[in-house]
Amino acid sequence: MRIGELAHAAGTTVRALRYYEQQGLLRPDRSPNGYRLYGGSQVTRVANIRLLLSLGLTATDIRAFLPCLGDDIAEGPVCPASAAVIARRLAEVDDRIAALDTTRTRLVDALARAGAEKLARAHEAPRARTTG
Length: 132
Prior knowledge:
CATH class of the largest domain: Mainly Alpha
Order of helices and strands: HHEEHHHH
Oligomer: single chain
Structural class: mainly alpha
Helix content: 55-70%
């Protein structure tokens, strides 16, 4: 299938597919006239790329998943080669959360010092967060 057909089948844009190709995540074949040609398995690959991007991974991070992007990673186990990438990204998210919690505490304290106790009390209790 050509690039427009893949974009339609995968629910994305031609522009996104060209970006994935530029990042080394997709490698189309070329027809004699230079058109990009994709096999049907590329729909799964694109779905996996989109899933990983939605999890907060970057295109560079996703390169660790290249050996398993053709498999349905949403339903199956994570590739062993990619576990380190996920662990690193999770540590970065945890660091950001800790920094935001510190900033939040400082802002609540600043409100209290400014005489806005009612506003500060409304924000003192940390918001409930789900962890998984």
